[in-house]
Amino acid sequence: MQEPLLGAEGLDYDTFPEAPASPEERTRAGALQNKKVFLATFAAVLGNFSFGYALVYTSPVIPVLKNSSTPELHLNEIQASWFGSVFTLGAAAGGLSAMVLNDLLGRKLSIMFSAIPSATGYALMASAYGLWMLLLGRTLTGFAGGLTAACIPVYVSEISPPGVRGALGATPQLMAVFGSLSLYALGLLLPWRWLAVAGEGPVLIMVLLLSFMPNSPRFLLSRGRDEEALQALTWLRPAYADVHWEFEQIQDSVRRQSSQMSWAEARDPRMYRPIIIAVLMRFLQQLTGITPILVYLQTIFDSTSVLLPSQHDAAIVGAVRLLSVLIAAVTMDLAGRKVLLYVSASTMFVANLTLGLYIHFDARPLTHNSTVGLETASLGPTDPPAAHFSYITLVPLLATMLFIMGYAMGWGPITWLLMSEVLPLRARGVASGLCVLASWLTAFVLTYYFLGVVKVFGLQVPFFFFAAICLLSLLFTGCCVPETKGRSLEQIEAFFHTGRRARH
């Protein structure tokens, strides 16, 4: 790697040069009226709903199983750590498989294929009579999540017009959040086995709807199926849109990159620069602490003695997360990607630092809950929480809500969107799988060791670490992340090749 990560000499890497609106950009209003592209997006992102649902499945289930009277299902601290973290190993394997399936089967069929491990995993957990069934079911749902995490953003970005690609690109994260919120809400009503049964429904609906949706026009063109690609693009656009102009742009881009990227070409800065940016964004996204916080959310609240019952706090946080992603979806194509990334990282920094300082300096002993497995060695003897009641006990809830809000407004949805926007077409299938692999291996390490670190060093230490990562994310955004608002995928790719927008 001879050249620096940043852009070409003499050019501003952070933005694209101003340009008159293209025919495609001028049809944004028409794109908003085209219900078919929204229907196709909805069908695909149901896979993200299942992903979000399965990710936080352990939040209400771990406390129940740690108190289980059935010896085969009773979890100790180590088993609880595996139950919480093995999902991420499955997701990493799903990311690896996406490196092959994304380009072999295509984006749509890869998403549909994820239904097999997902449905099987939920069935295993619903009927579990031993720990191995819980772990295997969790791994399979993780595999499905990792596969969809790599395929769905690519599919959505490739079927979306530039004018609404930001809003549609936020829908995978939006549906993942909605899935998590649904789990928290159902966790207040259903036993843990029925929570797994309920997870089967969205998987089946996703397969049914996707059966009637077109494949990505870019994928079809890369396989020489030009007529089918034109039909797909025509179906996805309004009747009055300039489909032939857009088709020619995509066809020209695919023709110039008709072969897969070789290892020799991977050393070309025009190839490795966007890949490195996408991978590092997924790496930093996980290091902010989002996965261990979500997986152990109810457990963390149990340990910090917040005012409301922990399961209610988890549901409140889920609702805040959903609202924040909705705000991001609306503003992403107006404010731009980088502004939201700055706001997001700053908000997460304040939230993590606040929570860490609260735990570190709070003189009021925290309630020790033996069913939870979180311990703070520096704290004194435990007293009943009612004896120390104060509104300051709301700080953990408010700080967590602030963290989730910050993440959901920027580093959550935008990281997924930018991954699908900046990756070169020739490397998009492999590189998206690499991004998911890096992301979930990082998540596994954080999730598996989270409880152990808390037991040895205290609950405040992970939050101080997460706060430091948020500062690093701010620096990375300013130095390395391009602004892609309002640009077609062809324009973005041309920028990494020449530093200039694509000509029309």
UniProtKB/TrEMBL annotation:
Provide the GO biological process annotations.
regulation of glycolytic process
UniProt keywords, alphabetically: Glycoprotein, Lysosome, Membrane, Sugar transport, Transmembrane, Transmembrane helix, Transport
Q: Where is this region: Disordered?
A: 1-26
Q: Which GO terms describe its molecular function?
A: transmembrane transporter activity
Report TM segments: 37-62, 82-102, 109-129, 192-213, 275-294, 314-332, 339-361, 389-418, 430-451, 463-481
Which Pfam families does the entry link to? Answer: Sugar_tr
Q: Where in the cell is it found?
A: Lysosome membrane
Query: What is this entry's stated membrane topology?
Result: Multi-pass membrane protein
User: InterPro entries annotated for this entry?
Assistant: MFS_dom, MFS_sugar_transport-like, MFS_trans_sf, MFS_Trehalose_Transporter, Sugar/inositol_transpt, Sugar_transporter_CS
Q: Provide the primary localization.
A: membrane
Q: Would you tell me the Gene Ontology cellular component terms? A: lysosomal membrane
Which intervals hold domain Major facilitator superfamily (MFS) profile? Answer: 40-485
The text of the family note is:
Belongs to the major facilitator superfamily. Sugar transporter (TC 2.A.1.1) family.
In UniProt terms, what function does this protein have?
A: Probable sugar transporter that acts as a regulator of glycolysis in macrophages. Does not transport glucose.
Know the name of this protein? Solute carrier family 2, facilitated glucose transporter member 6
Organism equals Jaculus jaculus
Gene for this chain: Slc2a6
